[in-house]
Amino acid sequence: MKVKICGIRNLDEGKKISLLKPDAIGILVGYNKKIAPNVISEKKAREIIRNIPEKIDTFLLTDKTNSKTITSYCKRIGNRYLQLTGDIGIEEIDKIKSRISGIKIVKVIHINGEKSIEFSKLYEKCNSVDELLLDSRTGNKTGGTGIIHEWNISRKPLWLAGGLKISNLKEAIRTVKPYGVDVETSVQNPDGSKNYYSINEFISIAKSF
């Protein structure tokens, strides 16, 4: 079971979380701070990624939908994975893939009804999308909502996020049987800093599968 810890805010957090041996970390760039409190500057993102052990995959998360903007982010920051959380068109994804050698693209599917299944199929057919990630949507806020979506419609190998926490992680994994799990809000302290005890426990549970 793969584990990704999202919302890394600075190099110190990145280094400490790396010691807990997750498979990947996620860094948020380009978001509105009101929508994504853990968003950081390109400079900080680049610093974190350049100092993370090679064996840990680095994900850049963005809700931008313009291929030129996103391509510029990736080339300046140096991430290995790109996680697209916005409603970006397939043509734009194809452009990103063609412009960045070796980039792996993960498309987030926001679960908010039966139409989400049909929506996910469009990205499944897109050769430029390497993986899918299911997450929850609440109003205008997408991802990191801490709300559990309908696991029973997530019946294929993919990343699972949205409301995952220590108390429900085993149930989620048994229900969905995902490729990996992604967590942000439930392993944070009230001030937004990362809770390393919770992260370590979350990773331990996931790695027991």
Set down the secondary structure blueprint:
Elements: E1 2-6, H1 11-18, E2 24-28, H2 42-50, E3 57-62, H3 67-77, E4 81-84, H4 90-99, E5 104-111, H5 115-124, E6 131-138, E7 141-142, E8 159-160, H6 169-176, E9 180-183, H7 196-206
Parallel strand pairs: 1-2, 1-9, 2-3, 3-4, 4-5, 5-6, 6-8, 8-9
Antiparallel strand pairs: 6-7
Helix pairs in contact: 1-2, 3-4
Largest sheet: 8 strands, parallel, barrel
| Structural domain count | 1
User: How is the largest sheet built, in terms of strand order?
Assistant: 1-2-3-4-5-6-8-9
Tally the helices: what do you get?
A: 7
- The fraction of residues in strands falls at 15-25%
Are there runs of 5+ residues with pLDDT below 50, and where?
139-143
| CATH class categorisation | Alpha Beta
Q: Tally the beta strands.
A: 9
- Termini distance? 6 Å
**Which H/E pattern describes the elements?**
EHEHEHEHEHEEEHEH
> What radius of gyration results from the CA coordinates?
16 Å
Structural class of the helices, strands and pairings? alpha/beta
Quaternary status: single chain
Helix content: 25-40%
The best one-word shape is globular
CATH architecture assignment: Alpha-Beta Barrel
Fill in the CATH topology: TIM Barrel
CATH homologous superfamily title: Aldolase class I
> What integer is the average pLDDT?
88
